[in-house]
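Sequence of Phosphohydrolase (Tianweitania aestuarii).
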Amino acid sequence: MMVPSFRPNGSVMDLANPQVEDIDFADIAARLSKLARFNGVPRGPAYSVAQHCVLGADALFHTTGRAELAGYFLLHDAHEAYIGDIVRPTIHAIELAAAEEIELAVGSKRKSIIKAAVERVKRKLDNAIFAAAKVPALWALPTLEQQVKEMDEAMLHWEAVQLFGPLAANQVPKPATGSRVGVKAWGACKAEEAWLERAESYLGISARMA
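Predicted 3D structure, token representation.
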């Protein structure tokens, strides 16, 4: 069954079966630059997914000197350009609601199915995105995948503390390694441009702003 999803020109792609030819990195940068992290909860200007990816990628490059690792961080949330940023509390709330709805005695089984379904949608998009970027799938490189995950958790800590204040420090684990990443929200245009600049410098992807 096709799941139609709009492209900017009014045509549609099949979200259930994304193809390499569906991937447009200029479009990804534009979408991520307007997609707010944390559901837009922090007061003030939106802190975008594009900026999150750029800051984390730069931090990895500065600490490791590895452009390919920085490139993977830049791409790790690229699927959100197509499905949005489904934040962790939302996924957890859906998991619990699903368990309650079908009155399962063991809710964890249903919760794992819901989470697995979300991951399956992301994986299909990631397959197309990594292929379009001409790099191996991240999950085929366990060491790099772990480093990207660790940086993502570190970014979550520093973002939460700086965007929500000191009380948030108790809600997210402090990273064991890595230095503090400064977070101050950019505008969408700057975030889009920065994402595309890093795509070229870290991945060799040349795309013009949408």
